Amino acid sequence: xxxxxxxxxxxxxxxxxxxxxxxxxxxxxxxxxxxxxxxxxxxxxxxxxxxxxxxxxxxxxxxxxxxxxxxxxxxxxxxxxxxxxxxxxxxxxxxxxxxxxxxxxxxxxxxxxxxxxxxxxxxxxxxxxxxxxxxxxxxxxxxxxxxxxxxxxxxxxxx
Amino acid sequence: xxxxxxxxxxxxxxxxxxxxxxxxxxxxxxxxxxxxxxxxxxxxxxxxxxxxxxxxxxxxxxxxxxxxxxxxxxxxxxxxxxxxxxxxxxxxxxxxxxxxxxxxxxxxxxxxxxxxxxxxxxxxxxxxxxxxxxxxxxxxxxxxxxxxxxxxxxxxxxxxxxxxxxxxxxxxxxxxxxxxxxxxxxxxxxxxxxxxxxxxxxxxxxxxxxxxxxxxxxxxxxxxxxxxxxxxxxxxxxxxxxxxxxxxxxxxxxxxxxxxxxxxxxxxxxxxxxxxxxxxxxxxxxxxxxxxxxxxxxxxxxxxxxxxxxxxxxxxxxxxxxxxxxxxxxxxxxxxxxxxxxxxxxxxxxxxxxxxxxxxxxxxxxxxxxxxxxxxxxxxxxxxxxxxxxxxxxxxxxxxxxxxxxxxxxxxxxxxxxxxxxxxxxxxxxxxxxxxxxxxxxxxxxxxxxxxxxxxxxxxxxxxxxxxxxxxxxxxxxxxxxxxxxxxxxxxxxxxxxxxxxxxxxxxxxxxxxxxxxxxxxxxxxxxxxxxxxxxxxxxxxxxxxxxxxxxxxxxxxxxxxxxxxxxxxxxxxxxxxxxxxxxxxxxxxxxxxxxxxxxxxxxxxxxxxxxxxxxxxxxxxxxxxxxxxxxxxxxxxxxxxxxxxxxxxxxxxxxxxxxxxxxxxxxxxxxxxxxxxxxxxxxxxxxxxxxxxxxxxxxxxxxxxxxxxxxxxxxxxxxxxxxxxxxxxxxxxxxxxxxxxxxxxxxxxxxxxxxxxxxxxxxxxxxxxxxxxxxxxxxxxxxxxxxxxxxxxxxxxxxxxxxxxxxxxxxxxxxxxxxxxxxxxxxxxxxxxxxxxxxxxxxxxxxxxxxxxxxxxxxxxxxxxxxxxxxxxxxxxxxxxxxxxxxxxxxxxxxxxxxxxxxxxxxxxx
Lengths: 159, 911
Fold this sequence. Notes:
Subcellular location (chain A): Endomembrane system
Protein name (chain A): AP complex subunit sigma
Number of domains of chain A: 1
Order of helices and strands of chain A: EEHEEEHHHEEH
Keywords (chain A): Membrane, Protein transport, Transport
Strand content of chain B: 5-15%
Shape of chain B: globular
Distance between the termini of chain B: 63 Å
Distance between the termini of chain A: 37 Å
Low-confidence stretches of chain A: 143-159
Helix content of chain B: 55-70%
CATH architecture of chain A: 2-Layer Sandwich
Oligomer: heterodimer
Mean pLDDT of chain B: 76
Helix content of chain A: 40-55%
Largest interface: A-B, 59 and 78 residues
Mean pLDDT of chain A: 84
Main location (chain A): membrane
CATH topology of chain A: Beta-Lactamase
Family (chain A): Belongs to the adaptor complexes small subunit family.
Shape of chain A: globular
Largest sheet of chain A: 5 strands, antiparallel
Radius of gyration of chain A: 17 Å
Structural class of chain B: alpha+beta
CATH class of chain A: Alpha Beta
Strand content of chain A: 15-25%
């Protein structure tokens, strides 16, 4: 019962974020992403949010123009994953304020940081939004004396 | 210095085509490489961030891996942060670079700053390899007792990874893991419960220890259920559903097979099941998990009723997600409590017709599990109705399921035949070959239904629309039982009367033969049927001759041969024709079933046939026509038992006989060059005299003879026996072949008849013409006398999976004991062709391996052909060590890559 990957895909099928918790080569990933995105995007809203593909089960949910897809292995609780996706979106929303595709594109690393706090090695570890965001907000506040920041990159503005 | 990350993303977004995007990325990568070369410190983490973006787009980024390591080693948090992120995204545990990071990780694990330690734990938890796990386990274990919850929770999940990588460490982590269960922090609890679950799955001892903690788990769960609103971990009005689910899951593990623990947890399970609100997704997630736990632990009746009721509610829910989950659970529960699931049968059958493919698949699986003798009729009817309207891509699955259900639970043969005809009448060719074969065996075994079947088929064929399976069965039945179409024999009660003339019956065959959709396989069926009809319907003989004739010029060897030989029989051997084309003897159901049960590895009759290159792979692909040819001989010899395993020999022997009978001048020439003219002599004695043909067959082979080949055949063969040089070598040769069981049937026969002449002729004739008969029974037969060396080592099955079989034959070149030549042959057992087939092998150092090019790279479906390949091995430690080989086979099915691996350690001794 683990999450094998988390994907964010827009309506055109372009990947916006990809985090894998098991090793797949670049070619395999591209192929897999293509296949499941095609499968999921073709489904209507009335159909259920679960799709079986190869030996993964994909649980997906659409928020505006973004599809959140989570691949799990055989006996994961599908409804819980659905709830988890919602949790991810709420967290992104709290951080970015009305999150949109571009926020994630231009702050990919931030999105990853959040996901990293929430999922580790394919297991959900934290769902409290404050706990998730604290380290990131701390980092944003460059004034925090805890960190010895090099002069050249006092903030992430260099990005 | 390059562009800003923002600008790169903009540039990528602005790309209109994939080629444009590739251009932008290539340029960016070149800049990055330069920047890395210059060891540009200031922009290092911007560069890594770019790399991550490029990686996400699906381009290779391996050149940046070292940069991540450098960032991790640096002192600043933002650098470390991005460095670790890069590490987790761009690297994986298989890369050796990862070893370099062990030391940095160790330092960071012990860092005073919780976030830095957290980062290291997270990275370790996501990507650590077994070696790293072993090296860093003590550090992680120490952090499990850290007073900071942020670190404890990450350490717990990191331990999950470590335990998974190094299972011996389970014991080491058990006590700290149990300690985590008393933690107050939710994140730590989630992680701790997960760690406990992982430990329990890995070790029986840990499970035992965890059983002592049931009370603790129950208490945590109880606190969650009864506690009021807890804003920190509230999801839709429910306190921490994720933790509840985790605990329920652990309880499932603990309670399974342990009545005491099950008893302890029953109260809380009941409480969860009744108190959880089912109107929100989070609540349903918990209910779902709770039901699974209740059904898995040791039975408590009342609780199960509760669980089944929840599932009933789920199933009736309008939300498709909930219905999916319900079906998914019912599949798991059906073995525990079939009765309860049966109650929901109607709803489940409705779900098979759902518009959503995910739900349909689940429901179909469930229906399949639910069918039994009592409900098979209603359920099959439903499924058949649905088959008519289902999506094309769903049909194959559905057809296979229906066929197997009908076969398994049919209350009587007539019903079975009826249903099969209905399935076959569906458009599209979804009925599989073995299903067809089973049907024919059943038909053949139901003499009282022959008339009914052939008439039903005839009726269905009036609306024929190119269904291959229907055509084949119909043509076969008309060939066998054609006269029953016309004379209303065996009419069943309530059967609709049908008036058919002889030429109507021939019309059906003509339709099939003229149709462009009919494969050569079907054509072959049709030709044999025509030959048979020629004696059943004498008035149509001329028409049949005209229909057979066009195939004399067929480009397909099998059809051409049939056409020529059958033509000869019709024109020149009227006298023996009636006996020659008698009805096929009843196929032995028991033998057939036991063969089938023995699995794909056994030499199924069809497999055996496929190995022969006689008719080209396209004809043999379906394996169907052979029984017919076989037939003629069987009819001729009037052998009436156990012919299933012996198709091959008889078929060829049949050809022989035909040629011996003078049907084919060329073949008879061949035959006369054979040393064993025995059979020919005997037959040529018989054939010129018009009267002896039929009479000899009756006198020689009394129809009631219980002995299949035995006595009667021996009578003929007796004078020949001493002459036959191969008979003696036959028995030992077959004995060494690996497929013993199937061969035993053969052996039975050959032991009662020590030197059956038909076999001897077979050896001679087929031996040289079969370059590669590894798969067939014949292998043992033909190779033995010709290449004596081969028989010293039995053929082995080197790899066998559901879709592929690899066989090894061994040849030991004389004079060099160290070297061995392996003749590998690959057989496709699935119904899809494999393309780009590549075989790879690895051997230990004491062996030297040389792979010759394979005979091809495309492997036709269903064993319709095979690829062969020679492998030369030199065993430098011959006599001390035996061969060992690892295999890896790569191929594509419908464009999808597939890899199979295996190890071969069952090499015969002495190689």
